[in-house]
Amino acid sequence: MVKIKKRKLGEAQIPTSSMADIAFLLLLFFLVSTNIDVDTGIGLVLPEFVPPEEQEFVPLSKDRMAALLINENGDVLLDGNIIAIPQIKDNLKVRITEKIDLPSNRKLVVSVKTDRRTVYNLYLQSLDQVKGAYFEVWEEYAGAKYGKSVRDLTPEELEDVRAKIPIIISIAEPEKV
């Protein structure tokens, strides 16, 4: 009789040689397919740099300028009068509307000035109110002249509205305390 030897069976193993490849593919997939929300900041168009010796200073009359001052406590002054931030829009709308029919060199200039320790959120809220005043005047003007909203205007009509009511905001350097 022939004796048959029993072979020892090895333990079951999971192949892990391609595990790193799969992990990198998953990582790459999630990196490519994920939307990352990035704050864009304040949408301002800054003027080109002009050396101080080449700058031209044009004096502004008091009736042409709206001085908006914001201190560190959140107090807002519009032309020396204390107002709340939500009131900025309504006060400026009246002044912007008064100057619609004047030539472009007589339009309203809104000067925004803050204290160095002013809370950034108050500064942004104030700028939003100023721009909101201009946008509401644009809407009223477009409705009166063209009978439609600013969004529905043709590029030529929109350019006319922008020329008639230009947004002129002067942002002054914050003062040291």
UniProtKB/TrEMBL annotation:
Example of a GO cellular component annotation carried by this entry: plasma membrane
Pfam families: ExbD (PF02472)
Keyword Transmembrane helix (UniProt): yes
Entry keywords, A to Z: Cell membrane, Membrane, Transmembrane, Transmembrane helix
A GO molecular-function annotation: transmembrane transporter activity
Membrane topology: Single-pass membrane protein
Predominant place of localization: membrane
Compartments reported by the entry: Cell membrane
Record protein name field: Biopolymer transport exbd protein
